[in-house]
User: Fold Diguanylate cyclase from Mesorhizobium hungaricum.
Amino acid sequence: MKSTRRTFLAGASVLGAGSLLIGAGMGRFGRAWAQDAKTLVFAAAGTVTSSWDPSSHTIAPQITAEALVFGRLTKCLMKPENPGEILPDLALEWKVIDKHTLEYKLRQGVKFHDGKEFKAEDVKATYEYASQPSRPASAWYPGQVEVEIVDDYTVRLKTEKFGYPALNFWYVSAFLPILSAKDVADPNILKQRPNGTGAFRYEATKGDQIVFKANDAFYDGKPEIDTLLWTYVPDANTRVLGLLNGQYHLTERLEPEQYKSLKAEANIVTNSSLSSENKYLHFRCNKPPFDDVRVRLAAVHAIDRAQVLAVVGEAAKASSSHISPVKFGYVDVPDYPKYDPELCQKLLAEAGFPNGQGLPEIEYITSVGFYPKTREYGELVAAMLQEQGFPVKLTTLEPAAWEEQIYRRADGQGPGHIIDVGWITGSPEPDLVLRPNYYSKFALINGINDPEIDASLDKERNAETTEERLKILQEETLPLLAAKVPSLSLFSSVFLRAMSNKLEGAYFYPNGPIDLSKAKLG
Assistant:
């Protein structure tokens, strides 16, 4: 039977209440085993891939895991009041030499986990290897780059040979992990075991659990947490129950009603923060019916984002932009497509599908257990589309299976027609979102191939000043994406977390990673 928004919303209210009761009622039971003050157990919502090479993927949970192990040239805390602030990490100073050159003065006395001293050769090896177009994560980079070694502790990033300004790395350098030159020389080593300069070193993987140990030689002092157990727990209720019964110290990506319930728990501390993640519905733009912009726009005009926000609650913030408010260049686009059933029907008729007649079955793929409320608002969105004549089939998968469906494959195609996914990066740099998703060379999920979008992305990338670039982003690039909708940005995510009140000193980055270098368990 075809669902409607009315029947769905009634069901969602019951489901929300049930989830709340489960979290509150069962949390008092179970045997606590995470009692060692030197061992922290993190219940993670996502898993990692089989490769520890950071250039081999764009998977958000793995980026969170890698942040424990790897250092970067700089750090960006991305606080909403000052998202562009840059702080030292492996580089202590940085400056613009000319249009195509950035210089970094490196921290001395830092060692990789295998004991090798960190030097300029490692920055050169990392950037020149990972920015190669053949690397799966090369879309993180504005382009290829050459690194000049001035001395053991000074490097210059040079982009003239590749035709774009070096200023594009100003924020990106806060996101890209620094690898050992010795490991880069043998990529098989990178895949098997991460070797960074971060506060924690990789010890072992045991089933769904990863063991990290404190780095005795960490440049900012050995962490008080001696052992960090990363435990993959795909079900949100299980994560909450484990936190309440003492099995876990920290968990992430809570459902809104769980977050509200946990606020009332005396031994639990909750945390919420605006993230650098937007949630999108990506249309597979390189196969019917969404290869036609009119059909994409029709689908967008069928979706009432205000109702989606009502379902997601505290885990979302309204926005009308393809980037998060903590990104450089963010603006709410004035003409962002809005809910308009009449315009939806007009566009469908113009595209040759009056009232949806003739459309193929459309598979909408989403996850459950990683992002809040995806099943609930997925059912709502499917019902909205069905009301306008789109024959939608909703497929709901656990995170590991869903991750296998997200990206386009070797033939350029991907499963399904609409993909629900977030995109999150640890830098204010907007191109970390825009180029991987909307530049034809990459278009990792939606497969858009649009010369006009490419030209706009190149134009903003090649701007010689931040002021000029800001203007292009806000007045040209973001409005163009809104007009051609290779994806619909539903909202900006608000991260909901909870932890034991014994845990102090954790810092939560807006892209998911957690700085536990100064944390302790009381």
About this structure: The chain has 16 helices and 21 strands.
